Amino acid sequence: MGGRGGDPQTGPLLEKLPEPSCSSSEPEEHPVKRTGTVWTASAHIITAVVGSGVLSLAWSVAQLGWVGGAAAIVFFAGVTVVQSSLLAECYVSRGDPERGGLIRNKSYMNAVRFYLGERRQMLSGFFLSISLFGSGVVYTLTTATSMRAIHEANRYGREGQQQGAPFSTATAGGSDVYYMLLFGLAQAVLSQIPDFHNMAWLSVFAAVMSFFYSFVGFGLGAAKVIENGVIKGGIGGIPLASPMQKVWRVAQSLGDIAFAYPYTLVLLEIEDTLRSPPAESITMKAASRASIAITTFFYLGCGCFGYAAFGDGTPGNLLTGFGEPYWLIDLANLCVVLHLLGGYQLYSQPAFALVERRFGAEAWVVEVPLPLLRWRRSVNVFRLCFRTAYVVAVTAVAVWYPYFNQVVGLIGAFTFWPLDIHFPVQMYLAQNKVAPWTTRWLAIQAFSATCLLVAVFASVGSAVGVFGPNRS
């Protein structure tokens, strides 16, 4: 993702130059003051990347074994660095030669339209809508599980010693609906945050939460290994009854690791918060490299220590494998909840922006008088209604299909290559006018083809996991 706009004078110009109407970016009638730095961008990225999925990586490593598990985590970290670098360069582009100026592609959809045309934009919009909506459903389900785990752990702490009350996070109950509704209510409020420019505080807070529960999983895994006095696990991972079952498990675990990394759908929105000079792409690439390095450290720690601690008995969620200390596991689950409050918004903002730009939401502002307070408040009616309805729809799907996360896993596999690899690669080639059959063109196409093969393999494995007779 290399540096267009490296001239230090381009920063101020970008705030003043109008954008051609033919571009995929919207004109800035009221330019936004961009103040983001490497630190705020890194917080946004970590919030987007490090989700509760980090706690399932031990299970993935257990399927792949010591060599394959660690190698897969490092491989997909490298894939994410490359594809995020390609996309970061597509943020700023030269405008219409006859009209001059520079163009900001402020969102993924805008960039696809500008570089690849409206038809490709419609296709990417289809995959994008599935991915963003599905992410919201998964976050709602995951948060409800963590909230219920806190409730059950506390109940066991009060009653377990006397009455033998069981502690289990595996059994879903009616109380999940209550927790989903609470989470949905919180998101309905947070969704009124206008855009990414106003979310730095939320991302910093969410990133701190993700650090904490990742540290807890990391630390408890290491402590368990020390307590056992032996490193469990093997080179080939967990043995299964048949070679075909092993193949599907490997495919599913590759999918889990692959889809734990990318943040393509929110990358350009994050880049649009950055100040310049230096060029936004330079800052974004630095933030991406730092964030992925930190993320990979935690992924390797949680995945490998978890497998070393439990071996063939590695649980799907690392935190559920530890019985004590209850207070620490409670705190870790609370951090999962608080982190996903911010992560949900990070993945919802592109969906909000997509619809609001399409329907001109800025024209729906009204003044609402508050006589008792002698105060008038500007309210965007479209934003209030649409965002609330979106959160309600996500929450409803989660409530109606409480095991929908397996289906969304399949959707994630289905959308990985087109959204995270194909479109960014094609936009980069178009922007830089890379000639076909040159060395750079062949290298980029080989990268895309390799990721396609992995995505197809993971998609088939995920489909077997959802629809097969031996669902895992």
TrEMBL record:
GO biological process: amino acid transmembrane transport
Segments forming domain Amino acid transporter transmembrane: 34-466
Main location per the UniProt record: membrane
Biased composition (Low complexity): 12-25
Keyword field: Amino-acid transport, Membrane, Transmembrane, Transmembrane helix, Transport
Transmembrane segment boundaries: 38-59, 66-88, 122-141, 200-223, 290-310, 326-347, 407-429, 441-467
One MF term in the entry's GO annotations: amino acid transmembrane transporter activity
GO cellular component labels: membrane
Renumbered residue ranges of the record's region Disordered: 1-34
InterPro entries cross-referenced by the UniProt entry: AA_transpt_TM
Transmembrane helix listed as a keyword: yes
Record localization: Membrane
Protein name: Amino acid transporter transmembrane domain-containing protein
Organism listed in the record: Triticum aestivum (Wheat)
